[in-house]
Each structure stands twice: as C-alpha cells, then as structure tokens.
Amino acid sequence: MGVTIHDVAAHAGVSVATASRALSGQRGVRQANRDKVVAAARELGYEPNVVAASLRSRTTHTIGMVVPRIGNPFFATLVEEVEKQLQGGNRSLLLANSDYQPEVERRQVQALLDRRVDALLLIPCHRERSEEALAAAAARIPVVQLDLRVDGFDASWVGVDNEAGMRELLGHLDARRTVFVGAEPTDSSAQSRLDGYRRAGAGDEVLLGDFSKEWGEKAAGRLLSEGLPEAVVCGNDVIALGVLAEFARRGVRVPQEVRVTGFDDIPYAELGQPALTTIRQPQAEIAAEAVRVLHDRLAGVETTSRRTAITPALVARSSG
Amino acid sequence: MGVTIHDVAAHAGVSVATASRALSGQRGVRQANRDKVVAAARELGYEPNVVAASLRSRTTHTIGMVVPRIGNPFFATLVEEVEKQLQGGNRSLLLANSDYQPEVERRQVQALLDRRVDALLLIPCHRERSEEALAAAAARIPVVQLDLRVDGFDASWVGVDNEAGMRELLGHLDARRTVFVGAEPTDSSAQSRLDGYRRAGAGDEVLLGDFSKEWGEKAAGRLLSEGLPEAVVCGNDVIALGVLAEFARRGVRVPQEVRVTGFDDIPYAELGQPALTTIRQPQAEIAAEAVRVLHDRLAGVETTSRRTAITPALVARSSG
DNA sequence: TTGAAAGCGCTAACAC
DNA sequence: GTGTTAGCGCTTTCAA
C-alpha cells in the first residue's frame, strides 16, 4: 500500500513503461532489465493495483456469475466447478444470488456490468422475464447461460437435455400410473422436464409448485389423500427428498407402496433412506464447457452463440 | 460504454464536479441542477464506470469472502445470508473457495486484496496454517472471521459456541457409552467440538477423519465391526448423514439399536429417515452480525476486534 | 528495446 | 453551490 510501479521502476533504474512490460510478462524487454524489475518488485513488496490496470486496459479479469439460489446444492456444486475451472486462468468470480426473482436478477446483473466484469455466466431464473437482464448483459460482454435459459433469445447456453433425461427415467420406471410433482414452468428446466414428462406419454397427472422440499412434502400429503400412483416423478431432487420425508413420516413404504424419483443427483440424493433414483447432471462437464465457451469468446475465437446440450444419465437406486 | 460523466455534465449544462456530486447523492447541489443532471444521465444512458471511481476514491464497494467449500450446504447458506445482508447496502460479494487448502486460501485472499476489496469475510480453513492469509488481509483491510477462526490471532470473529453445543447434545443423549466421529482438528470447529466432547466427560472414544459423508460411511462400518455404542456423536451433519446411510445399508436400525447425532442443522438433516437430531447454527444471525461488525469497522466506528459467540440450540429429532 | 507522455473516467481539493 | 484542476496507478501509443 503505497509502493507503485514508479517506485519499482526507479529502484530498478528503468522507466515505468519498461517496468510495466516486464511485470506483465510482455516480450520486448531485455532479460537483464526484466530480472532487475522483478527483483525490485519483490524487494519493495510491490502489489500491483489491478483497479488502475483495469481502468486503463479495460479488462478486469473477473467473471460475473448469477445463480437463482446458492443454497441449492445443485447450483452450489456448479459454482464450485466453475471456480475450479477459473483457478488456473487468473480470473476471479464475482458471485450474485437472484433468489429466483427477475427483478433482483436484473439489479445483480447491472451491478456486475457496472463493475466491468469481462464476461457473465447467467443461470436465468425465469424463461421469459430474465430476458431483459440477459439482453442488457449480452449487449456489452460475452454471456453464457448455464443450466437454465431464456426462451427464444440468441445467446450461448450449456446445459442438459431435460427431455431426454425424463424419457430415460420413465423408460426405467415402466409404470402403469405415474404422477409428476414439479415446479410451475417459470424457468426453462421446470418447463422442459414437464414437457418431457408429457411427451413421453406418461399421462397428464401433474402437480405444480416450486423447487422446494416444502412443496414436495405438501404434494406428498395431497397424493396420500387422493390415492397413490405407482410412481411419483419429481421435478428435482429437492422436491423428491421432501416427498420421501413426508411419506416416511406417514408410514408409507418406498418403493413397496410407491416409487419415487428425482432429477439432478445432488449429493444428498444417495444419502436418504431409501436412496433416491434420479438423473445425474454432470456439473463438472457443464462448468468446463461453459468456461471454455467463455474463454473462446473472450479470446475472439468464437463470435456466434453456441448451444450445448449434454445427455444426462440415469442413476438407479432403491427408491424407484 | 462511451458516454462519460463529461457528456452528462455538458448535456446538463453544469461542470463535471457538480454532475459527480449530483449523481453520487452528495448534498451541496441545488435541486434544479440535481434534477438536470439525473435527467441528462438517464437520457444519454449513462453508466458510471465504477472502476474509475474506485481508483480515485479508493473504495470498491466490494466485500471479499472466502469459504472452505461452497458445496457444503452449511457454508452455502452462510453465503446466501451474507448476500442478503449486503443487498441493501450497494456492496457486492466477491466469492472464492479455498477447498480446505491453506495454500489455495492464501492465493485467493491475495487475489481479493489485489482487487482492492473493501473488507474480507474469511472462514479460515485451518486453525494454524490460515494465519498467513489472515494476517496479510488484516494488515490492509477490516477482516471478520466467520464460523471458523485462527488460533490466537487477534481478529474479529463471529460464530457459535461449539463446546456449549456439544454439552447440550450430550446432556440430551444422556448415554452410557458414546463414540465421537469427527474430523481431524485442523480447523477450529473440528477442534472445539472434539474438545467439547471430551470435556463433557463423554469419554475418549473418538474416530477422526474429515467432514465428508464418505468418512461417515467408513466410520460407521468400523463401528459395526467393533461393536456399536449407545450413541454416535458426529462432528457435523454431513458426517452424520454418511453414518446414517451406511447403517441403513447394513440394516442397523436407528435409533433402536444405536442413536446418531449431527451438528449444524443443514436443510438435509431433517429430510433423512430417521430425521437427524442435531445442533442448529443460526446462520442468518451469524451473517447479520458479521456484516454489522464489518460495516462498523468500515465506518470507523469500531476499531478493536470483537469476538461474538452465539449459543446454538438443540434440535431433537428421531435419530437420537 | 526503451522512455516520455498521454490518458482511462472519475472524485476531491481548492478556489471562487 | 459551483467550477477548475490535479491526480488515483496503470498501460499504451509514439518516437527515439
């Protein structure tokens, strides 16, 4: 705090320009000078002011990320994987939570843009109402949508083929009567899982709430009073764990009396009793691909938007 | 992008200084001018460059936060609560993961300091080896340790009284023979929970690994072959869920044959079967207090370090 | 390969 | 209350 590149340059007996070039590893600096500068920097305990560098170079080496709910282990794991991908490349992650509210999301995206993040990873919390935030960002910097997406907006996206996952699940269940317990199709996954369920010809019995364990518990109660199907197909693992908990409390045996499935394969899916049958989303792969797309865009290699859908795999456990 | 405060000032017919004052809500600007400036800014689509503002004002309105593992729902919830606290105050959160590695943690803290965060929330992953990172940060900016702490370092801390929690738990169990399944005391919670267990006179049977479900599963297997105690006291919920899962797989009935307890009360603690008896950490309170301490420090109100230990409460469920 | 000098866009003294 | 001006610390022309 206090020692600037001027001090380093003076100490090394070169100009600030040379010091700057040496410190940022540019070529075109004589090796002897390079060494002197590096030594001086170390000796003086020089800590570059990246804010100043950003102002001039117009790049912050920071990537913004907005998630609907960091408390959901699925998103937390995604964040962790993105962080891991960024480790090598000297970029940091500026994280924000939208709390599933498009208004909050818009403000958070704006705050990130104000901070001049180089690029944005967005998990848009709403299929339609996230468009404004996405558009605002996409107009300025490279943006990749992660997991969720905005309907009909031309921007890169990396996620999972939810419909294929749902087909796989229903094929595995091969049940006579199922009920889908999902979330109102406000986000794209809620929508495509519901679509997948319906298109697979599993029938039209659907209960829609939100992606919470509380909703799962409530829905389970309702199913109990209306008559249990052969299988309950849940929109994600969190709902399924709520369903399982309520069934356990009411003394309903799973899978003997009713089978239950989830979606995502969060770490807690396999810990319950019974362990949850679900569809695994490969978060490491999704994160790696998203970061790759972003880097390509930042490097100017790629300019068009790219959509990548990974086919998720069934994880059959005892609940279904 | 392109329109600067000079443009706004010109458009409003005032100087840049007045424009700056009006835009940042300082008093000492005539209302008429204030209105003109705001109108001009809106009209031109002015987006302030906070990087430039930061360079000059030496404040970034950004708070850094380093957590050991964002994938652990306990930490994820803490992050979420901190985010919530920050919402009002126009500060953003720069998040980093240390992966429980002091080396990584040190690098992450340095990256945050390089970005000139105004303050740091640190959950030090190691009782001793996190000291270097903590000291580096504390020398430059206000720092508050959250949940975990570094031994014998004079810095603010907000967390829970782990020993009290452990006493409460053991009092509730009132068991003849217990075994503690915890983590090697590399972080302060692992240490103080172990201490609490021992000091409560619960005996000396301890199995130490790390805070993972895999360790819980392994420890459960070991207990099974060595003879079950009356109760298994786990170092946190994640371990306890692993223990529970393994017992379930091996057909051991909980709590009939053995009781199991956790620590933290993560959202998944109550979802398992049986629901987990545990100690609740009030994350919202911890986050609120930490942010308050930080704000006081940033406002210059408080200069000495402050340690706040919240007494956690027992949540008795069916597992113990 | 190097150095001098001009800003990046803003805020904060300072003068009026 | 307002304007002028001098930087914040760095990178990047532009000349040499």
Automatic annotation (TrEMBL), chains A, B:
<feature type="domain" description="HTH lacI-type">
    <location>
        <begin position="3"/>
        <end position="57"/>
    </location>
</feature>
<keyword id="KW-0804">Transcription</keyword>
<dbReference type="Pfam" id="PF00356">
    <property type="entry name" value="LacI"/>
</dbReference>
<keyword id="KW-0238">DNA-binding</keyword>
<keyword id="KW-0678">Repressor</keyword>
<dbReference type="InterPro" id="IPR046335">
    <property type="entry name" value="LacI/GalR-like_sensor"/>
</dbReference>
<protein>
    <submittedName>
        <fullName>LacI family DNA-binding transcriptional regulator</fullName>
    </submittedName>
</protein>
<dbReference type="InterPro" id="IPR028082">
    <property type="entry name" value="Peripla_BP_I"/>
</dbReference>
<dbReference type="Pfam" id="PF13377">
    <property type="entry name" value="Peripla_BP_3"/>
</dbReference>
<dbReference type="GO" id="GO:0003677">
    <property type="term" value="F:DNA binding"/>
</dbReference>
<keyword id="KW-0805">Transcription regulation</keyword>
<dbReference type="InterPro" id="IPR000843">
    <property type="entry name" value="HTH_LacI"/>
</dbReference>
<dbReference type="InterPro" id="IPR010982">
    <property type="entry name" value="Lambda_DNA-bd_dom_sf"/>
</dbReference>
